[in-house]
Amino acid sequence: MTVLKGLREALVLLVIALVAVAVAAGVWVAVSGGDFVARFGISLIVVGALLGVTGDLTLSRVGMLGARATFGLAPERETGGGGRVLTGVGIFLFVGLPLVVVGITLIS
Q1: What count of other Cβ atoms lies within 10 Å of the Cβ of residue 102?
Q2: Fewest CB atoms within 10 A around its CB: which of 40, 46, 65, 102?
Q3: d(CA 74, CA 52)
Q4: How high is the pLDDT of residue 80?
Q5: Residue 21 near residue 40 (C-beta atoms within 8 A)
């Protein structure tokens, strides 16, 4: 059951990433012209690499580290998964890596 939840979560994240990257590539083509497929592939590689490097979707927490340290609060910790099943490795394997592979395929 947990495996199916994780795969479903990965599919949702993958679809959201594809839609967001398609919109960004469309704006990029509208602003500067060029080939949509190549720009879409480059955008996929960038987003996939960012997800692979961060290993998780916790970039929003990084901005609060300074404020929490100023007030003497401990860094945030994940509690009980927060409804998420995928870890950083799962996000890399099932979301980031496929985005990079599809981006490389589109460019070549």
Answers
A1: 18
A2: 65
A3: 26
A4: 47
A5: yes
CA distances to 63, 64, 95 from 73, in Å? 14, 11, 32
Q: Kindly report the number of other CB atoms within 10 A of residue 52's CB atom.
A: 17
* Radius of gyration, CA atoms only, the chain: 17
Model pTM above 0.85 = no
Task: Report the distance separating Cα 80 and Cα 20, nearest Å.
Answer: 29
Q: Provide the 3-class DSSP secondary structure of residue 21.
A: helix
Distance CA 69, CA 59 (A): 17
- The amino acid occupying position 48 is G
Spell out the residues 6+ positions from residue 96 whose beta carbon is closer than 8 angstroms to its own.
48, 49, 50, 51, 52
Report the distance separating Cα 44 and Cα 103, nearest Å: 5
In this predicted structure, what is the pLDDT of residue 74?
66
